[in-house]
Design goal:
Blueprint (H helix, E strand, L loop, with lengths): L2 H25 L7 H31 L5 H25 L4 H22 L5 H22 L7 H12 L1 H11 L5 H27 L8 H18 L1
Length: 238
């Protein structure tokens, strides 16, 4: 690939990563009126992220991940990802840390960034996966910031700086996938399926339970919109 393609990959990975601090900045605005609208917007944003995550699993990670591995290996990697994310959840719950959403966000951002780099190295399109990473990082950044803020109210600006620095992991791991891991398609398939299993666990364990509101029906449409973003991108790239 040309130098221009590498630059394009880095730009895509950086933009996708910067959606995390963008979500955190969005989370600083808590004075939306009326109150019911603020609640619906928050739940809708969470649903948008859930839809994008499911879209990434169904349209990118699983289809690409099963190409180079056996059925048994696919099962092992997929279940392994779910168990690993569950173990992380249990550990963070025991530690009573306010960083469970942050850990979940990084746990899917890193393997997806690697997948972005390997996709580019193999000549595939990066628009769909990059777009889905950005769409899911926005609500994840929003939720992670809201979760961590109560224990860090005096350092709210520093939290946003931390989120900006974490965004740099995107181009870093994309380059790792581009220059190194693309040579090992079986390993990459395993990483994608591992991430897919972990992401689905996170959706059902952490995100979906927070979306539901009694006597409100609009927030789930955010999930439909999030998945639709992936569907449109998938069709355009196809």
């Amino acid at each position: 690939m040309s130098q221009g393609d590498v630059v394009g990959l880095l730009i895509m990975a950086t933009v996708a990563g910067l959606a995390m601090p963008a979500g955190a900045i969005l989370a600083t605005y808590q004075g939306i009126q009326p109150k019911w609208l603020e609640k619906e917007l928050r739940h809708g944003i969470l649903a948008l992220g859930a839809g994008a995550l499911i879209s990434a699993v169904g349209l990118v990670l699983v289809p690409e991940g099963i190409k180079d591995v056996s059925v048994l290996a696919a099962i092992f990697c997929f279940i392994g990802g779910a168990i690993a994310f569950m173990a992380l959840d249990i550990y963070l719950a025991k530690k009573k840390t306010a960083g469970s959403q942050l850990a979940a966000m990084l746990s899917d951002f890193v393997p997806e960034s690697i997948a972005l780099g390997t996709t580019a190295a193999l000549g595939g399109g990066t628009m769909l996966l990059g777009l889905l990473i950005a769409v899911q990082n926005l609500p994840e950044g929003f939720n992670a910031y809201r979760e961590m803020l109560p224990k860090n109210k005096q350092r709210s600006n520093k939290l946003i700086v931390i989120f900006v620095l974490m965004a740099l992991l995107g181009p870093l791991f994309s380059l790792l996938g581009f220059y190194y891991l693309a040579q090992f398609p079986v390993v990459m398939s395993g990483i994608m399926l591992f991430a897919a299993g972990g992401i689905l666990y996170s959706v059902f364990q952490d995100i979906a339970p927070q979306i539901r509101m009694e006597n409100h029906w609009l927030p789930p449409l955010g999930g439909i919109l999030g998945f639709l973003v992936g569907l449109i991108g998938f069709m355009l790239e196809g």
